[in-house]
Amino acid sequence: MLDNLGDFKRDYFAGELTENNIGDEVRLLGWADSVRDHGGVIFINLRDREGVVQVVVDPSKSPEESYEKAKKVRSEYVIGVQGRVQRRPVGTENPKIPTGNIEVVADKLLILNTCDVLPLPIEDSINASEEVRLKYRYLDIRRKPMFKNLLVRHEVYQATREYLAGHGFLEVETPMLTKSTPEGARDFLVPSRLEKGKFYALPQSPQLFKQILMVGGIERYFQIVKCFRDEDLRADRQPEFTQIDFEISFANEEDVISISEGLVHFIFKKVLGIDLKLPFKRITYKEAIEKYGTDKPDLRYEMELVDISDLASDVEFKVFNDTIKKGGIVKGLNIKKGAKFSRKEIDELTDYAKKFGAKGMAWIKISEGKMSSPITKFFTQEQQQKLKEKMKAEEGDLLVFIADSYETTHRVLGFLRKHIADKLKIIPEDRWDFLWIVDFPLVEWDEEEERFVALHHPFTSPKEEDISKLDSALEDKALASSIKSRAYDLVLNGEEIGGGSIRIHRPDIQKKVFELLGISDEEAEEKFGFLINALRYGAPPHGGLAFGLDRLIAIMVGADSIREVIAFPKTQKGNCPLSNAPDYVTEEQLKELGITVELEEEPS
Question: Is the pTM here over 0.85, yes or no?
Answer without folding.
Answer: yes
